[in-house]
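Batch job 17 of 40 flagged for manual review because the log was empty.
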Amino acid sequence: MDAPIPDILPDLLTDKLDLVICGTAAGAASAARGAYYAGPGNRFWPILAETGLTPRRFLPPEFPALLSLGIGLTDVCKTVSGQDEHLPRHGFDRLRLHAAMQRYRPRLLAFNSKRAASEFYAMPTGRIAYGMQPPLPEMPEIWVLPSTSGLACRAWNATPWQAMASRVAAIRQDRNSAPAR
């Protein structure tokens, strides 16, 4: 029996997260450094700070600290790394992602690219809009955001990220203002 293929980057998931951000797969720089969104042109860490999702700009090796802020990380393709157009079909595991969302039950799942969402929904990227998506049974609220990859600079637009961050802020505010049980 074949041994399971190890994940390129570990999932950063736990119970009671406000937000899980799901990328397509680790890029070459992230795989080499063992840290999410480590490519030099990636906008991930700056946009988290700019939108207030994090109190400051984190460095890629600090990714585990996101858990303390209620933010988790994962990818649709966990066992292969590289540019999206070079990822093999067998690397994508949408059932694993679905199971993880049911297991950990975050309040919101945000795809960091139409490609990641496309692999999850099994539909072409052209049929997916940025922003909040129609609800799915037994899934958290889902958002699709422009990719932060430096290779996706033509599609970059911070507005969906800002809208999603506002939604996360509202979730946090509701939780913090709820009476203690």
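Reviewer: the log was empty due to a logging misconfiguration, but the result itself is present. The chain has a mean pLDDT of 93. Unflagging and moving on to job 18.
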